[in-house]
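Lab channel / #folding
Pinned by the channel admin:
"Please post every new chain as: sequence first, then the structure tokens as a reply. Keep commentary short and put observations after the output so the thread stays searchable."

First post following the new format, from NK:
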Amino acid sequence: MVFRRLFQLVVVFVLLLAVAWAATALYLDGPFHKFPLVLPLVFLAIVVGIFIRARPRALAISLCFGLFAVVVAWWLTLKASNDRPWLRDVAQTPWAEVHGNLALIHNVRDFDYTTETDYKPHWETRTYDLSQIQSMDLYMNYWGSPAIAHTILSFEFANSPPIAFSIETRKQDGQSYSAFLGFFRQFSLIYVMADERDVVRVRTNYRKGEDLYLYRTRATPANARGIFLDYLKTANDLRDHPQWYNVLTSNCTTDIRPHLMVGGDLHVPWDWRILINGYADQMAYQRGNLAGDLPFDELKRRAHINDAARAADQSPDFSRLIRVGRPGFGQPAEKSAATF
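Reply from TO:
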């Protein structure tokens, strides 16, 4: 009897979550932008009517879940677009051409900032020699809770400045990031490809209350090359077939895992820290993927780069200066890469 009652409570709780999500999806993503409350109110009225009229109770619950499924089926038909009034920092869609060892990347971002929101946009086309790729580095960016972070991968070359890949929300004019809105179809997905002086410095030198950590990974040049190419493939796919950002299923960390598995040919077991990604560096450390040979707490302390980035600021040698003295940097590439 107790277990039956507990099961019923769990079902009702899940149903309430499903109804709340569906009503919110109809409100935020529905077609009636001038009257956004119409569809969610109709939906809730139908749900209430079902619970009043339908018997037995199991039938009412089944019908409500069926109604939820109809909303989900509609929601999945919504298509992302690259044709929107984007904010200037995500106005251009990166894409690449690969010819043998040469990767020609279009719309590499290299902004000159005065403040976080006041900058001179500058987009470049850069060529990278894949035979010169040396390493892959991991950035962890925190702005509040230690449980949540933004992850960035950066690739170093022997004959070119590093290029950083940041998987982000593509926001329109008037939008700002919201984890709650990320559960719905409010943001498109973009693979920002940027000079480190842009994507790193805006976080350390201009935004307030953000902390950035830089780690050298043990990825071999071969692993780094495969991951780099898989990033480019996805960027090209997004140019032709835009996708939605989702805070659970398609974000800055969950979308890295497929690149490591496909491009890097690594085994990447699922881990709760892929979702609670503020601990992704701890996960990588425990799997032997961060260079430095120090206890994790000490490695993380010395990985903090805010002061170094502020000191380097406008220097053309920015990327080298933020790496000087960091554990693991300057070491030769590993002979084999561990699972990330």
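NK: The longest strand covers residues 133-142.
TO: also worth noting, The chain has a mean pLDDT of 94.
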